[in-house]
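Lecture notes, part 5. Sequence design as translation. It can be helpful to think of inverse folding as translation between two languages: the language of shapes and the language of residues. The source text, in structure tokens, appears below.
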């Protein structure tokens, strides 16, 4: 019950509103919800029974930052000549997800064909448990039209396999529509009753599956640890795929590192070949000279100058070699196609900054070349590496210029010193001078040859000791339980889907309903207060109120009786108008039982049957209809003649409608109504007027000025929703005074329905369908 005071009331939503709506709108349909949940659980169980489980395979890889051991690296990092770790990590992740590595994994594992055992419940992918292993020797010959499932049979006795309508032997290269193949037995027992299928996929299809399923992500934002996740129906195959991806990634990194060492090795070998020939020639000349001249020894003075000249010549040779190396590096840096050039050797150079810069440039261009194969031209990572190359080249060129200047200055000084020494040597005997000339070339070539041998050994050692910058933290391992489908999630989704489906159907049904179904429907449209809610009465009896009545409907009428004081009926204010929108909403039922309830409280009540067109109250009470109100209004009867006591109740009286008039509206306006109500106010505590529906005729509007309050009856599943706007207009314009709503005939929703009856019956029953039964009472009649 809602207490009102006659003022405008807004129906604010409360925290209980949602719960109330759920309880009133959906709870009555609980059998449908229960049935839908049961069906959903059964469907989920069947799905889990037949669904193929998928296992999650995970591995952890540590990507370490590449270092070259030079002291200048900290200085280079401070100058921000190289990118940060974040960019490097993103590059490595893109490489791990590249198509190149994925194709290599597929080829190494020969994943083009998988054996499937057909089961009664679900098919099972056999990886290492397969009795046969199919090796595709020409995977490029697998056409998309020949992919799919191909049933085969295996005869372990004769060691033959029947597939594609042909029989093939084991352990022999065979020619098929998928190219050359090799079929081997894996030692697993073959079930002769089982059905096997060879599922064949080409390389492109497998690559798309792996790239879509493989997840490569950093474990932490600031770290260099990478997590790899993959899902597969065969956990052992998933582990092999992840482990093979890590292996080929590490192998590719080592190969990239060895490219510089290989280029250096080729340069050293070429120089050794040339210097070895020159050294042999110099030794032959010394031997021939000594033999021809008979020279055994030279003077100690000549040896001293010769040693000085030889040392200077060695330094001059080294300086020339360094200048040659600088020219080669400069040519490499200024090349317009750095990816296609070989990185020159840096033999003889000892400047750590230049060595670091060249090494960084080489590594950056290798990364740039690898990234171009996996990303587009507009990739931010590609742009970052390009900017790094552009920053490194000017620094290298500036360093080369500085070193060249220093080397040329030193070379000039050595040549000047040699000229001075040679002048001294010329003073020795001619033979010794000639011997010095020949011996000097031999020593120079020997020193160069020794130096190149040392560098070759160092390069070979670096080549052999090259390792990947990544380290496997955790090898790939499949989860002990399937990742999908997850039983709790499947059952939960099934239950939620079932509840949502039934709730949606109920909501759609309610939205399609044109009649008022819930109290919320009333509160959404009108701000008029709801004074009471009356349940649907199962009994066909019109009167539900009595002294001993304890039904829920009777208690609701007692609550309505109590609320009359809150809607404005007290003291001298005792006239109550009861109306509705259309016929059949139960306003006469409300009028009779409310009057009966007031009389049981020892209140003198008079009930006026003012629905002159279609009276129902007298029929409900089984009382005479004539003479009545119409007779009184035309002056053909007195109040005492039309006032009837209801049964043996001394507190309840009835004024029946009387004979049906042809002009009810004009009859109400003839002035006798006010005199009648004034007379009744002197004798009764309450005057209840059962009026005609306000949505069809104007009688209620005409009577309203003489009443102190109005009860507007809205019936569940009867009142059209569009009439609620009429109630709001009447309430806002105060055309019916202090209007309050009674929500009548509320039925239980769901699988069981209960109701009070149809009340008026059909709306079309209104109208002047019969003339006055007593001629002469009215002046005119309507045909």
């Amino acid at each position: 019950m809602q207490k009102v005071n006659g003022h405008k009331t807004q129906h604010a939503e409360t925290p209980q509103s949602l719960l109330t709506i759920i309880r009133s709108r959906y709870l009555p349909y609980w059998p449908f919800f229960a049935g839908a949940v049961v069906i959903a659980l059964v469907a989920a169980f069947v799905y889990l029974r037949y669904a193929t489980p998928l296992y999650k395979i995970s591995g952890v890889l540590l990507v370490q930052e590449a270092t070259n051991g030079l002291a200048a690296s900290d200085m280079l990092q401070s100058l921000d000549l190289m990118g940060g770790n974040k960019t490097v990590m993103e590059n490595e992740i893109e490489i791990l997800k590249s198509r190149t590595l994925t194709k290599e994994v597929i080829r190494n594992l020969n994943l083009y064909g998988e054996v499937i055992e057909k089961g009664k419940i679900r098919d099972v992918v056999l990886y290492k448990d397969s009795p046969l292993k199919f090796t595709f020797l020409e995977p490029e010959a697998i056409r998309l039209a020949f992919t799919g499932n191909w049933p085969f049979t295996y005869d372990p006795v004769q060691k033959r396999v029947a597939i594609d309508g042909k029989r093939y032997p084991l352990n022999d290269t065979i020619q098929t529509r998928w190219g050359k193949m090799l079929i081997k037995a894996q030692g697993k027992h073959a079930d002769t009753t089982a059905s096997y299928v060879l599922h064949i996929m080409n390389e492109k299809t497998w690559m798309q599956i792996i790239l879509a399923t493989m997840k490569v992500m950093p474990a932490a934002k600031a770290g260099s640890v990478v997590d790899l996740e993959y899902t597969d129906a065969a956990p052992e195959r998933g582990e092999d795929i992840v482990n093979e991806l890590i292996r080929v990634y590490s192998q590719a990194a080592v190969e990239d590192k060895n490219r510089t060492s290989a280029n250096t090795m080729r340069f050293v070998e070429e120089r050794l070949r040339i210097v070895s020939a020159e050294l042999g020639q110099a030794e032959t000349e010394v031997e021939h000279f000594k033999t021809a001249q008979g020279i055994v020894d030279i003077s100690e003075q000549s040896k001293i100058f010769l040693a000085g000249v030889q040392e200077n010549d060695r330094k001059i040779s080294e300086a020339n070699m360094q200048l040659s190396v600088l020219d080669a590096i400069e040519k490499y840096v200024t090349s317009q196609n750095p990816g296609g050039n070989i990185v020159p050797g840096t033999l003889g150079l000892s400047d750590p900054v230049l060595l670091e810069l060249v090494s960084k440039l080489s590594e950056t261009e290798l990364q740039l070349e690898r990234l171009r194969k996996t990303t587009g031209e507009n990739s931010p990572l590609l742009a970052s590496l390009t900017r790094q190359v552009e920053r490194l080249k000017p620094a290298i060129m500036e360093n080369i210029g500085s070193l060249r200047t220093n080397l040329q200055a030193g070379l000039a000084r050595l040549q000047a010193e040699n000229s001075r020494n040679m002048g001294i040597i010329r003073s020795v005997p001619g033979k010794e001078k000639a011997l010095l000339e020949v011996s000097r070339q031999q020593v120079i070539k020997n020193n160069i040859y020794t130096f190149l041998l040392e560098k070759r050994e160092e390069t070979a050692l670096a080549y052999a000791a090259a390792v990947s910058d990544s380290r496997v933290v955790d090898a790939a391992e499949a989860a002990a339980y399937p990742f999908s489908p997850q039983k709790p999630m499947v059952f939960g989704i099934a239950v939620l889907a079932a509840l949502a489906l039934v709730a949606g159907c109920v909501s759609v049904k309610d939205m399609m309903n044109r009649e008022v179904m819930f109290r919320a429907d009333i509160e959404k449209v009108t701000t008029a207060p709801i004074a009471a809610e009356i349940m649907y009465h199962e009994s066909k009896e019109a009167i539900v109120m009595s002294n001993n009545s304890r039904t829920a409907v009777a208690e609701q009428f007692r609550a309505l009786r109590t609320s009359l004081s809150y809607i404005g009926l007290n003291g001298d204010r005792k006239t109550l108008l009861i109306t509705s929108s259309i016929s059949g909403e139960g306003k006469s039922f409300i009028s009779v039982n409310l009057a009966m309830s007031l009389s049981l409280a020892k209140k003198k009540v008079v009930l006026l049957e003012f629905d002159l067109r279609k009276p129902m109250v007298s029929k409900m009470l089984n009382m005479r209809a004539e003479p009545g109100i119409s007779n009184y209004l035309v002056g053909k009867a007195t109040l005492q003649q039309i006032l009837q006591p209801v049964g043996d109740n001394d507190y309840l009286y009835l004024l029946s409608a009387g004979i049906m008039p042809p002009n009810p509206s004009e009859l109400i306006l003839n002035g006798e109504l006010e005199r009648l109500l004034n007379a009744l106010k002197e004798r009764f505590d309450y005057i209840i007027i059962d009026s005609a529906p306000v949505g069809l005729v104007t009688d209620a509007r005409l009577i309203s000025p003489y009443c102190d309050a109005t009860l507007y009856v809205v019936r569940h599943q009867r009142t059209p929703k569009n009439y609620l706007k009429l109630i709001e207009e009447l309430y806002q314009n105060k055309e019916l005074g202090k209007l309050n709503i009674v929500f009548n005939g509320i039925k239980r929703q769901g699988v069981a329905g209960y109701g009070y009856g149809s009340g008026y019956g059909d709306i079309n029953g209104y109208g002047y369908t019969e003339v006055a039964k007593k001629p002469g009472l009215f002046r005119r009649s309507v045909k």
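The translated text above is only one of many valid answers, since several sequences can fold into similar shapes. The longest strand covers residues 55-63.
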